[in-house]
Amino acid sequence: LMKNENSLGLNVFDILENKLEVYKSLISQLKNAGEKINNNTISEAELEELRNSYNEFTNFKNGLMNFLGQS
After folding, report:
1. What is this structure's pTM?
2. Where would a tag sit more exposed on the chain, N or C end, judged by fewer CB atoms within 10 A?
3. CA torsion sign, 27 to 28 to 29 to 34?
4. Which phi and psi (to 5°) does residue 12 adopt?
């Protein structure tokens, strides 16, 4: 089993739990955006915000995969 804390002493599972809440929210945003895209009612600003959120999600996912690979 992997250590429960990273080198900074932060509880890895608390960090994951917090991040998962953020990404559950992102998934809701993406669903709503999908409807707006289908209805052609999404703004450029909303699209930019989604791009940023998606990039953040991708970075998190890659970091998580690296972390799990080290266990």
Report:
1. 0.53
2. N
3. positive
4. -60, -40
Confidence check: pLDDT of 2 > 60: no
Q: Which two tokens stand for residue 46?
A: 């909303």
Tokens of 23: 């990404």
Q: How does DSSP classify residue 13? A: H
User: What single string gives the DSSP state of each residue in 22-60?
Assistant: HHHHHHHHHHHHHHHHHTT---HHHHHHHHHHHHHHHHH
- 21-57: per-residue pLDDT in tens? 888 888 888 888 888 988 999 899 988 988 888 888 8
Amino acid present at 11: N
CB neighbours of 53 closer than 8 A, spacing ≥ 6? 26, 29
